[in-house]
Amino acid sequence: MKQSLFESRHKAEWEQFALVLEQLEQGKEAERVAGFPSDYRRLCQHLALARERGYSSFLIDSLQQQMLRGHQQLYRHRSRLGANVLSFILADFPRLVREQWRFVLAAGLMFFGSLIGIALLVYLFPDLVYNLIPAEQVSEMQGMYDPEAGHLGRSAERAASENWVMFGYYIMHNIGIAFQTFASGLLFGLGSAFFLFFNGLMIGAVAGHLTHIGYGQTFWAFVVGHGAFELSAIALAGAAGLQLGWALIAPGRLPRSEALRLAARKSVLLICGVMLFLLIAAFIEAYWSSTVGVAPMTKYLVGAALWLLVATYLLFAGRPRHAPE
To answer: Are residue 106 and residue 180 in the same domain, yes or no?
Structure first.
């Protein structure tokens, strides 16, 4: 391809890239900043083609200067992205949880209420567990938490050296539950409410049954640590789903599509925080909760500290020091 044709074909792209580049260098928020990385990569491809085809040094030098300036801006904005992520974790996410406290409270009551309620019922009426969970699955749970089994929270054939395998399994399993609870909120919130109750019933039934048969110490020592993050994440995923459902039920003066779009912005941010919680929970579950060489009392103390940490983080992180939020 002749240089003149190459320049005429891509001149508009280079001019647009130069305009965005100038805006970024002046500290302005360019309209196309989101597409800047892809535009930068395309400019690099054009520079490589110009060199390969032996185009004039004037064109090559011009493209190279833009490439070097673009590299500086790309690096600077990537650093800003890291700062934004850190800000979200340390302040924005807990603020959002408190802002959406009504949905969080509703989801928490559905999930933890059903969990505690069915756990007490199964403990008092043991046969009730078989109305909720198949006998084969109940037997499998008993094998996982048998004090004499020599393993904890995993099947006998899975060795402790495979913790990294369990870490990946826990992430995929828990994220699947959280996403299901969140996305089903599009069914006018009924789906999220169902999965909050369902998961609460399943977890509570297992807890009540194992406590009744004398396996409570191994079970509670296993779940108390990662449960702070995992159970909180399920409730928050449900809150995000309920928010979507409420936007469809009561859109106010907005069209339902617009109300849903606005609600989805905050719901998706909530889910980002949920993913972080589930990642932490999976790590704790794989590398700490399943450890058999730690005294149960130590696990209880660590678990209590983690529950306190989660509560403190969600209630107080990101608050102004001298002014109410």
So the answer is: yes
